[in-house]
Write a structure and sequence with these properties.
This protein is of the alpha/beta class and 327 residues long. The chain has 13 helices and 13 strands. The chain has two domains: 168 residues, Rossmann fold (3-Layer(aba) Sandwich), CATH 3.40.50; 147 residues, 3-Layer(aba) Sandwich (Rossmann fold), CATH 3.40.50.2300.
Length: 327
Amino acid sequence: MNRRSFVGTLGLGLLATPLAAEAQQQAGKVPRIGFLGLSRPELVRPALEGFRQGLRERGWIEGQNIIIEYRWAEGNYDRLADLAAELVRLKVDVIVGATQAALAAKNATKTIPIVMTTPDPVGSGLIRSLARPGGNITGVGNLGVDIIGKQLELLKEVVPEASRVAVLVNPTHSAAPLVVKEAEAAARSLRVRLQILEVRDSSELNSAFAAMTRERAEALLVQGDAMFLAQRDRIAELAAKRRLLAMYSFREHVQAGGLIGYGANLSDLFRRLAFYVDKILKGAKPGDLPFEQATKFDLVINLKTAKALSLTIPQSLLQRADEVIQY
């Protein structure tokens, strides 16, 4: 091939690339991701931003070469089945979500790949094993259950004399029984008495906090759950009113006025989920992709809340914090 022919062929090839992409888009072949959210978009902005960033890092630009179909349960788990079925009818290429969303998606489809984050993927029956998930599901474990002992230890570090701790759990969450089991095991070693309080929706919060008052709870541990995340302002207010030292799993609770939080970084978790989406869109089978565990955890402390509680946070704990909120 002479130089002129080569340049001509190269030029045609370069022209063909956008034309092929445009033709693919017109043919409806642009990949579509179903994002099944447990709460509302404004409440999980770090997760959304992390997911979009992860996609961009791998060349996927929302609205250009990939489409994301968002569906939001707004903290009502009863809506998840219908929303998952809707995404299946749309024939999305991958469904992304957290524990309860993934369970709903699994019940809705055995063929569409599901990429998810959850505390206990094997125990909740979503996958066979971490190394070989099998089926149509893979993702990242957020260790939300395994760190409960650490959360109680941190509470005791703040107030060593605390002996009565209330635990808010959502019994409709598949990980709730394991949360209780892990909390009870940690409480025995720390010589703490637990008060387990089940809250299914926001209407039960007032009665739960009233029960804490009756039992003279000194501290509070809140399960990492979308419903509690959606109610974070109200929970922080109720905890402050009763002068409870509250520990949470998400930084957003502390930013809303909670005292202290320790848990997986949502932005990093969902950024990693984008890695799995990219692999699947390029032909990988979800069941062959090992389930990872989260590696980035945040310790966040709200000094304004501590001051309102007349509480002095140990300097050693402040030095280990990833973020200290002072106003």
